Amino acid sequence: MPEKFFVVPDSKHNALVEAAYRSRRYLPDEAAAGARLCADASRHGIRTHNAIKALHLDHLFGSGSQGCVPGAQIEEIPSRFAATRTWNANRKLGQPTAYRAMDEAIALADRYGVGTVCVDNTFHYLWGGGYVMDAARRGYVAYTECTASLAEVVPFGGRFPTLGTNPHSWGFPTTAAVGYPVVIDWATSVVAMGRVQQLKREGRPLPPMAAVDKDGNPTTDPNLAVSLLPFGAHKGYGLALINEIVGAMIGGSLPTLRSRWGGDPGEKHTCAFFFQAIHPEAISGGAFAKGRDQAANVKAVIGDILGHGNEKCMLPGQVEAEWAKKTADAGGLLFSQAEIDAFGEIAREAGQPAWDPSGFKTVVV
Predict the structure, then answer these.
(1) What CA–CA distance (Å, rounded) separates 186 from 98?
(2) Is residue 263 part of a domain?
(3) Can you state the angle between helices 51-61 and 28-43, rounded to 10 degrees?
(4) How many domains does the chain have?
(5) Residue 91 lies in a domain
(6) How many whole angstroms from its chain centre is CA 331?
(7) Does residue 1 form part of some domain?
(8) Closest CA relative to residue 73, chosen from 11, 129, 30, 24
(9) pLDDT tens digits, residue range 87-114?
(10) Best CA proximity match to 241, nearest among 183, 169, 162
(11) Do the domain assignments include residue 354?
């Protein structure tokens, strides 16, 4: 159903979001990175991870709790592996940490073909797709995963939530082939907890096998749902488990304690990141059919997948690319009335003037 959106210039959005982060004692470069990721999420239609969500999470689990330390400095841990970096982020804000990690992974990939950066003691970086999409635009295959802030997902066959929603994000440099990077970015639960809250407000049921009640029984009643289920049963569980095991190997916290401060002072409560960038030349076998080079072969493979009557199928990243075109055509980021109201609350907290909706043009999308 078409919806009316207000068109907010990037500069106006970023100025307010940066001011909000600075009001929470973050350094200017941290605030700028936070605003950058939030703007990129909004630009691509990722409304679940825009500035409203980012600042709310920071209030609950970041600078408003003990999960983030404004101005924290990243400490590099010595490693004997030339193509790998391991960092202790010392609870630094997730977005600037993640941007720096991806840049470092790319620099390593330029030198060694592949670069890996592992980060311990950090705060959730929000939209993982934004980091791999940026790397893919720069010509690299990129991957990232992180452990979620809270354990809200019940393992397959269980009844108590011991897993995060644990996203996986892949980006591929396919702009020459299809016009945009293919970005595969997903959480490992059927729905997000925010979706449960939304359906509860609207009086609508959950999809089957998306959540369980307090006794671990599947429910479609959002009023009874207390925990989430992994998508694809044992398959989604396995993907969520990957994040927890990789996080554990980096040094990550127990999932049931993550972002829950207090209790045993010897335990950790922070997230862990994994970043990897691959130079396309490093994975080229060179023997492409009919004289094609690597880029032409990628285009041919995608063309075959979407051929044979599949021409209306969508590629991962296509929806985001189409939304980005809408924002570019509109001349700014698109926000609903409810989102404009939420930004008003952010402005009041930061001591900034609230946006006047009458000053923005509107579009219907």
Answers:
(1) 17
(2) yes
(3) 130
(4) 1
(5) yes
(6) 24
(7) no
(8) 30
(9) 999 999 999 999 999 999 999 999 999 9
(10) 162
(11) no
Return mean pLDDT, the chain: 95
**Which own/partner pairs from 347-351 qualify as long-range (CB within 8 Å, at least 24 positions apart)?**
347/16, 347/20, 349/20, 349/23, 350/16, 350/19, 350/20, 350/22, 350/23, 351/19, 351/23
- Which residues pair with residue 87 across a beta bridge? 76, 119
What are the pLDDT digits (tens) for 288-308?
999 999 999 999 999 999 999
Whether 175 has a pLDDT exceeding 80, the answer reads yes
Pairing of strands 211-212, 218-219: antiparallel
pLDDT in tens, 207-244: 999 999 999 899 999 999 999 999 999 999 999 999 99
CATH number of domain containing 263: 3.30.1370.60
- Minimal CA–CA distance to 345: which of 57, 55, 14? 55
Range of the domain at 113: 68-189+230-295
- For 226, 227, 237, 271, 340, the CA distances from 189, given in Å and listed in that order, are 13, 10, 8, 18, 29
Give the pair of three-digit tokens for residue 161: 């939530």
CB 89 within 8 A of CB 70: no
Which pLDDT score is estimated for 177? 95
> In sequence order, what are the residues at sequence separation of 6 or more whose Cβ sits closer than 8 angstroms to the Cβ of residue 59?
none
CA distance 67 to 156: 29
